[in-house]
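Continuing the series of single-chain predictions for the mutant panel. This is the parent chain; the variants come on the following pages.
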Amino acid sequence: MIQSIDFNCDLGEGCGSDAAIVPCISSASIACGGHAGDTQSMREAIALCLQHNVAIGAHPSFVDRAHFGRRELSLPAAEIHQLVVAQVGTLAALCQELGAPLQHVKPHGALYNLAARDPATAAAIAQAVHDCDPGLYLYALAGSELCTAGQRRGLRVAEEVFAERGYTAAGQLVPRDQPGAVIHQLQDSLAQVRGMLRDGTVRAVDGQAVAIHADTLCLHGDRQDAAAFAQALRDALQAEGYAITAPAQRGRHA
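Parent structure:
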């Protein structure tokens, strides 16, 4: 039986590589106004995804464009729920206008990392996704509080792993202001991906092997070398015998 993996990347963030990245991936998370993105960029990203049969997701974040959504903000759960509903709703309306199905929601940056460890934030996001459309997938850091919250709310959860981010011994992503947060070399990234997919483990920055489950593999689209990384990762996945397929597409053929 051929193994499948979803390969996702963030789009519409103004980084200039979207057109080169999209042919390599199976799912895209499109910035919808919080940390980046506007109506025009969302339309362009949706069109690219339709052209290449790439599944579309919303990428909501803290409303903090000055820090690209990577600064953690202290907000009550009700505000987090509201900002997710609003941003997902904006992208969903454009998807409907352009005839593109919306597959998933994936929080961005500091909101994603906060939800990974904080049950209240995770629950607010899971409820927001359910309120937008209970049929949507929720992309969440593998083994995190957001996975748990999504499953409790009855959502379909895709556990996400990262090709070029470092991990702590607790299975969280290393904060970006700490050593080892970002994997810069392609070969190191490929080694991490092979370990996660083949062995179900990732090597933490302290050297520990951490168990991990992967439904979807993420590459950050704001890297300067994102397009080259995307092609190399796709080639490596296919060489390992993986079918690169979005969760919703697998569901249709199950």
